Amino acid sequence: MPASPQNPFRLDGEIALITGGGSGIGLGIAHCMVQAGAKVVLVGRREDQLAQACAQLGAMASYVAHDVTCLDAAGELVAAAQKAAQGPLTILVNNAGTHLKKPAVETTPGDFQSVLNTHVLAAHALTCATIPGMVAQGKGSILFTSSMAAYMGVPLVMAYAAAKSSYFGMVSTLSAELSGKGVRVNAIAPGWIFSEMSRKALESDPARKAKVLSRIQMGRMGDPSDIGNAAVYLSSPAAAYVTGVTLPVDGGASVGF
């Protein structure tokens, strides 16, 4: 059932593939998309985590256990996702990622390549495998999860910042190539989002917690649903004229004083 003209924020009839969808921001996006009426297919390496996430999400969710850095298998992943959801993909969320915290001078070429493989090369491969089907349908939404590290200087994350910054160019180029064919391409740049991992990290480091909160104009951390709701908007008819943008969802951190 297509989205109602009275509620252009619905995703009824859409099928979304979400990488890194078993936890954190990816799972938050999945929850919001299911609530908006979409089917979701979660992708990650840990089958137990994916199964648990799908149990939370209900009948509209399925999963495919897969390592996105297996670049030559991106087409197989798309086929498996469409089989699991029993329909063609209309939304792709490139959310899978890995983190590396090291001084720049200690970051080896191997370290750098590993981060780029997950964030950049894997996202490119999966996007390219998804594009033909979306173009054939004349519709689609492709999203990338960027980061505040693409906007501000954060120490010890050079490889991660470079990978996330690359999405600016990927989004603008893909948008230029695809928007005339009905496929919109955008990114979301999350600020500091609350999770069990971030809670432990900040509670054990009061000075860091104070610094983080001082950067956020709204004075609090975000929730995964804040990113999920933004993803729903960007993939919905409500954003039919929005493409080629990176949307900060950060409580004002990127423009904070």
Short description:
With 257 residues, the chain is an alpha/beta fold.
Please indicate the percent range of residues in DSSP E strands (runs of 2 or more). 5-15%
Give the total of beta strands.
7
The largest pleated sheet is described as: 7 strands, parallel
Could you say what the CATH topology is called? Rossmann fold
Going across the major beta sheet, what is the strand order? 3-2-1-4-5-6-7
Q: What is the N-to-C order of secondary-structure elements (H for helix, E for strand)?
A: EHEHEHEHEHEHHHE
Q: For the record, give the distance between the C-alpha atoms at the N and C termini, rounded to a whole number.
A: 46 Å
How would you describe this structure to a colleague?
The chain is an alpha/beta fold and 257 residues long. The protein has one domain: 3-Layer(aba) Sandwich (Rossmann fold). It has helices at residues 24-35, 47-57, 74-85, 109-137, 158-178, 196-203, 206-215, 224-235; strands at residues 15-19, 39-44, 61-65, 91-94, 140-145, 183-190, 246-249. It has a seven-stranded parallel beta sheet, sandwiched between helices. Helix 1 links the parallel strand 1 and strand 2. The longest helix is centred in the middle third of the chain and has 29 residues, at 109-137. The model has no long low-confidence stretch (mean pLDDT 94).
